[in-house]
Design goal:
By secondary structure, this protein is an all-beta fold. The chain has no helices and nine strands. The chain is globular and about 35 Å long.
Length: about 90
């Protein structure tokens, strides 16, 4: 089983208040947790948990702003099936 973050995967700029779609690929089924880090992956806050493992989740971007953001998607049934953005993205 796998989960692969597709977007945001690094280099994007998302604006606070805008509606964005978090996207991933997975064959793990069930549900996933979606988490955001604003410090390059040191700490995480939950965006959605649980949400259906259907490959996308619409999110209204929240502050605070950071140039060191990463998104992580993890299967709830198979926690080893997880992925994080390959590089930082920016929230303005």
């Amino acid at each position: 089983p796998f989960v692969t973050v597709v977007s945001p995967n690094g280099g994007e700029t998302w604006t606070v208040g805008s509606l964005r779609t978090i996207q991933w690929n997975s064959n793990a089924g069930g549900y996933v947790n979606i988490e955001l880090s604003r410090d390059g992956g040191s700490t995480w806050t939950t965006i959605a948990s649980p949400t259906l493992n259907d490959g996308s989740h619409n999110w209204t971007v929240t502050g605070p702003a950071s140039a060191n953001c990463r998104m992580r998607v993890t299967s709830r049934t198979i926690p080893a099936a997880t992925d994080t953005s390959n590089a930082n993205f920016t929230i303005l």
